[in-house]
Write a structure and sequence with these properties.
By secondary structure, this protein is of the alpha+beta class. It contains two helices and two strands; from the N terminus they run αββα. The protein has a domain of 46 residues. The chain is 26% helix and 11% strand. A hairpin with a 5-residue loop joins strand 1 and strand 2. It starts with a helix and ends in a 9-residue tail after the last helix.
């Protein structure tokens, strides 16, 4: 019913696979690259028509309280999205 030679070969393959995974060279995980503007924010926080940035950051204000200030970026300077290069938006019509 069960062949001892096949069981030994299977156990050997499992052991070799475990040893290679445990002691082998590991590939470092890379972070997902996000296209960012010069201000440090991505395209989702910039307005498409005017280009202004809608992000806010906090800083220490008067009396040690936190206050929120808007980003001073006035134009998106990051990489151009692929959908703008290959397929410019058709709608709404410009006329």
């Amino acid at each position: 019913m069960l062949d001892p030679l096949s069981l030994a070969v299977g156990a050997g393959l499992v052991g070799v696979g475990w040893a290679c995974g445990r002691f082998g060279r590991r590939v470092p995980r890379t972070k997902k690259l996000i296209a960012r503007c010069g201000c440090g924010h991505d395209l989702a926080l910039h307005d498409r028509e005017t280009g202004t940035c809608h992000a806010e950051s906090s800083r220490r204000g008067t009396h040690g309280l936190r206050e929120w200030i808007g980003c001073q970026c006035r134009r998106y300077t990051g990489p151009t999205p692929l959908e703008d290069v290959f397929a410019p938006p058709i709608l709404p019509p410009e006329s």
